[in-house]
């Protein structure tokens, strides 16, 4: 048992367990090393003659190639035993984190979600990921979620705006009923195919489940219609000034930086859920891209996020 520091009376945050079958693996490893060593001995005891004869020069090069490969294989295999010789597994106890520390003592956490193309990665799939990380069991005022859209799609931005409104209902629902998984699509597929049909929920839970599912379906319909048409509804454009940044937009490979803070605790009128709890910070970002400069795809986007945050 290994504990992550602390004092008397603290429960461990993780447990270290030894892997099973260590004796059998070590026996196998030793026998394999002996076999590798015997191959080396055989090679060294059968070095081709250096006399000038037909074919001797070719044999020597073949011998060198084989011996070099066997040496490299043996060296690589010995190095990998550092991880395999004493195999251990660690089980974490995430629920104990809040028992040990107050909310104010926990560190702030930044979560990056990356996407690149609304056709390859549909906006509904992206926002389900965003909603699932926003609903983490962690103090919401310590949580910041950044969506890096390398395709700079106004459809993805619109989907994120819709998700921010749905989150005001989804996060309280997750907390109240200890929802798992916390991706709405995965949760609803599981609930309505198995659990809900078995009538294991009380009447209140069933009513709230149906209400949140209806909100999700409406959001999904709006996003899917916009994705299919390739346009954001006019009323949505007029409602949020962030769409003005697409006025100078050229293409997904050539555009200015687009940065929009959608949810932040400094905006109390918009950053709280239906229970009055502050929501995680939610930011949309599309880095500047120019065709004449290498952008290094999602790795470049991640570098841009880290650099701008620090």
Automatic annotation (TrEMBL):
<dbReference type="InterPro" id="IPR005150">
    <property type="entry name" value="Cellulose_synth"/>
</dbReference>
<feature type="transmembrane region" description="Helical">
    <location>
        <begin position="23"/>
        <end position="41"/>
    </location>
</feature>
<keyword id="KW-0472">Membrane</keyword>
<keyword id="KW-0808">Transferase</keyword>
<keyword id="KW-0812">Transmembrane</keyword>
<keyword id="KW-0328">Glycosyltransferase</keyword>
<keyword id="KW-1133">Transmembrane helix</keyword>
<dbReference type="InterPro" id="IPR029044">
    <property type="entry name" value="Nucleotide-diphossugar_trans"/>
</dbReference>
<protein>
    <recommendedName>
        <fullName>Cellulose synthase-like protein E1</fullName>
    </recommendedName>
</protein>
<keyword id="KW-0961">Cell wall biogenesis/degradation</keyword>
<dbReference type="Pfam" id="PF03552">
    <property type="entry name" value="Cellulose_synt"/>
</dbReference>
<feature type="transmembrane region" description="Helical">
    <location>
        <begin position="61"/>
        <end position="79"/>
    </location>
</feature>
